[in-house]
Amino acid sequence: MSAFKPGSPFPTPLADPSLPTMYDLPSENPEEPGLPDQFHDWQPQLLSQTFKPKTVPIDQVLTAADLNIYYDSATTRYYKRPDWFAAVGVPRFVEGGRLSYVRWQEGRSPLVVVELLSPNTIEEDQGLTLRGQQPPSKWEVYEQILQVPYYVLFNRVDDTLQIFRLEDGFYQEQAESRLWIAELQIGLGLWRGRFADWERQWLRWYDSEGQWIPTEQEKRIQEQQRAELERQRADLAEQRAREAEQRTQALIERLKAAGIDPESM
């Protein structure tokens, strides 16, 4: 269950047809309390829109929110449902769309998982619950079973960020205030700005130059601005061409008035 390395091949197809696929496993849990609040809806959207690593083809990058991850083919009633995760080296789309993320079918674990802390899940997310129980906690699944290389916790109440890297098989909290994934040349940090008409601190991905990767709306605005700039440049060039033509015509008229044939010059 190693991390993605640039240039590594796609996972091999499911070898054992007796193992269940995502079509055989539940994709929803009707017993889960409540639905995601607005922040749990919008923050994953911002993460997905800005997770654009340059070292991996876009068709090999999957991002997902509230999608079941099945991690044990022997105990298929167990799964985890991260607030957001990204996997690389797997097809971005499958026919019909993914109903869940089945580890033994996909061939790779997620590269990074983000959990948005809530009062009813904060202890499990932070690895503070009793270990060795069944089913295992999120922390145990991400660290010991899936071995997710990067695990991020964000508390939107006080805008605190905790970053964990898998080192020698265990999560070690990082002192840095930002996450940098060198193999993807992409980083994650706190950005204050407006998204979904809400001004606040958000988690957002940035590029190797430290620039925030634009959202879909920002890209549309940038494209509109570029188109407007090109139109203004074209209008200016046309205006200058007309002015040049007018100056040339005025010179011709002056030469003719002076008895000089411009065509003979």
UniProtKB/TrEMBL annotation:
Residues 23-183 form the Putative restriction endonuclease domain. Keywords: Coiled coil. Residues 1-35 are annotated as: Disordered. Residues 219-254 form a coiled coil. SUPFAM superfamilies: Restriction endonuclease-like. It comes from the Bacteria. The keyword Membrane does not apply. InterPro entries: Nuclease_put_TT1808, Restrct_endonuc-II-like, Uma2. PANTHER family: SLR1095 PROTEIN (PTHR33352), SLR1612 PROTEIN (PTHR33352:SF3). This is Putative restriction endonuclease domain-containing protein. The lineage of its organism: Bacteria, Bacillati, Cyanobacteriota, Cyanophyceae, Gloeobacterales.
